[in-house]
Amino acid sequence: MKVKVCMGSNCTMLGAMNLLDQIEDLKDIIDNDVEEKYNDEELDIEAVVCLDYCKKSNTNVAPVVIVDDNVMFNATGQIVMEKIMEKKKK
């Protein structure tokens, strides 16, 4: 599973760094959890310079996170974690 976190200026100011930290912490938890069964798909986390969604939108969409092909605008830690866990448990 590929997770991209936009680190453009708008996204960074609105919490992208915190989201990145949360996702990396979740990856550590998943990698070390022997009690739960997760699919074998590797969780690949990438901080991306800018995804340009803010420039293309007339409204505030930051922070932006992409989980596989699912783009999440105004991403929160809870929403991103739920999406990742939903995909990992399948």
Question: What would you say this structure looks like, in words?
Answer:
- The chain is an alpha+beta fold and 90 residues long.
- The protein has a single domain (2-88), classed as Glutaredoxin (3-Layer(aba) Sandwich), CATH 3.40.30.10.
- It has helices at residues 9-13, 16-32, 53-56, 77-88; strands spanning 2-6, 44-48, 65-67, 70-72.
- The chain has a 4-stranded mixed beta sheet with strand order 2-1-3-4, with helices on one face.
- The protein is elongated.
User: What's the pLDDT, averaged over the residues?
Assistant: 90
- What is the beta-strand fraction? 15-25%
CATH first level: Alpha Beta
Number of strands: 4
Per CATH, the superfamily is: Glutaredoxin
Rg over alpha carbons: 13 Å
Separate helix tally: 4
Question: Cα distance, first to last residue?
Answer: 12 Å
CATH architecture: 3-Layer(aba) Sandwich
Tell me the number of structural domains: 1
The sequence of SSEs as H and E is EHHEHEEH
**Topology-level CATH name:** Glutaredoxin
Summing up helix and strand content along with how strands pair, one would put the structural category as: alpha+beta
Biggest β-sheet description: 4 strands, mixed
